[in-house]
Design a protein that fits this description.
Non-ribosomal Peptide Synthetase Peptidyl Carrier Protein, Chain A, 144 residues, single chain, mainly alpha
Length: 144
């Protein structure tokens, strides 16, 4: 089998196509989660905490700040080392929400699969197996 035909077989398998669709849908879904966090959840958290909380503006200056810059953008533009932990908290919240939604989707899919799976019925042993079991049981009861 040539390399080209092996690659064609690999690329056109159902699993590969499913993976490609999953990546595309996952990218779009990630944008939805980003919007949910940035446009709905973070403003609600800020409102609940008195309207003074904006995670994107939370940072700590790690170097000298001779010009006493006060905004994150100005500090980054001046190449002053900044620990932007607010941005990290926002991304962490995005991840946790995305992971929770994926978990709930997988849980629902597993529940649907279990509901669709037919119950396994106990089948009777064939006559020859039943006869062999009777012989075995009779041999156990005899004394040698």
């Amino acid at each position: 089998m040539s390399l080209a035909s092996e690659f064609k077989e690999f690329a056109l398998k159902g699993n590969m196509m499913d993976l490609a669709v999953g990546v595309i849908v996952g990218g779009a879904f990630s944008k939805i989660i980003d919007s949910l966090v940035g446009d709905i959840i973070m403003p609600l958290i800020s409102f609940i905490l008195g309207g003074k909380l904006d995670f994107s503006k939370m940072y700590a200056v790690l170097g000298e700040n001779p010009n006493h810059l006060t905004t994150l953008e100005a500090l980054k533009k001046a190449d002053i080392p900044v620990l932007a932990f607010g941005n990290f908290l926002t991304i962490l919240l995005n991840f946790l929400l995305l992971a929770f939604v994926v978990f709930m989707l997988v849980k629902a899919m597993n529940k649907m699969r279990r509901a669709q799976a037919p119950a396994v019925e106990a089948t009777a042993d064939p006559a020859d197996i039943a006869l062999l079991k009777e012989i075995r049981d009779e041999l156990r009861t005899r004394k040698v």
